[in-house]
């Protein structure tokens, strides 16, 4: 018996799946698969999950990191070639150049800062949720976010 209602599952899929894919894309080349597995795992939980959004981010993060490790073991060359693959997010009409610039700038950030920016801006996670997800304090998460934003502001103001 599942502990999550169909309505809540549908809402989570609609509201969180795109941001979860973006979040997983930081670590692995098949983020859609990782997100799908996370939702399947949520359905299989025998007990009610108190914070399903935070739970999904944790499961996606762990799954994406594991997928990345598997890909690394298979071939370092394939991993680096695949990293040049799909963009992190789709740009809208006429915004392709800005999206490409943003992807380049995000790639220049350390993974801890990039993870925090993506979780906050695209995932709409609270500082406490980001802190729990990254196993840091909310102060550290906020500081990483501010440092990353300062870098991005500087990058976009000079170009």
SS field, number of helical segments = 8
Distance between the termini: 55 Å
- The proportion of residues forming helix, as a percent range, comes to over 70%
List the uncertain runs: 77-82
CATH topology annotation of the largest domain? Rna Polymerase Sigma Factor, Chain: A
The first-level CATH class of the largest domain is given as Mainly Alpha
Main beta-sheet strand count, sense and barrel state:
none
Report the oligomer. Answer: single chain
Mean pLDDT, to the nearest integer, reads: 85
Instruction: Report the structural category.
Output: mainly alpha
Beta-sheet strand percentage? under 5%
How many domain units? 2
- Reading the helices and strands in chain order gives HHHHHHHH
Which architecture name of the largest domain does CATH use? Answer: Orthogonal Bundle
Whole-number radius of gyration? Answer: 16 Å
Shape: globular
Number of strands: 0
Could you characterize the architecture of this molecule?
It is globular and about 50 Å long. It folds into 2 domains: 1-86, Rna Polymerase Sigma Factor, Chain: A; 91-159, Winged helix-like DNA-binding domain superfamily/Winged helix DNA-binding domain (Arc Repressor Mutant, subunit A). Helix 1 (6-24) runs antiparallel to helix 2. The longest helix has 23 residues, at 52-74. The protein is built from 8 helices and no strands. By secondary structure, it is mostly helical.
């Amino acid at each position: 018996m599942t502990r999550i209602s169909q309505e809540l599952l549908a809402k989570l899929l609609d509201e969180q799946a795109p941001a979860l894919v973006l979040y997983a894309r930081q670590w692995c080349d098949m983020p859609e698969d990782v997100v799908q597995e996370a939702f399947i795992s949520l359905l299989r939980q025998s007990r009610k999950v108190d914070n399903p959004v935070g739970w999904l981010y944790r499961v996606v993060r762990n799954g994406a990191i594991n997928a990345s490790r598997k890909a690394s073991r298979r071939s370092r060359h394939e991993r680096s070639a695949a990293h040049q693959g799909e963009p992190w997010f789709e740009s809208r009409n006429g915004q392709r150049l800005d999206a490409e610039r943003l992807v380049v700038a995000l790639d220049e950030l350390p993974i801890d800062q990039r993870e925090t920016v993506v979780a906050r801006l695209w995932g709409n996670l609270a500082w406490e949720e980001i802190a729990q997800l990254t196993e840091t304090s909310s102060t550290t998460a906020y500081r990483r976010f501010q440092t990353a934003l300062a870098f991005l502001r500087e990058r976009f103001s000079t170009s």
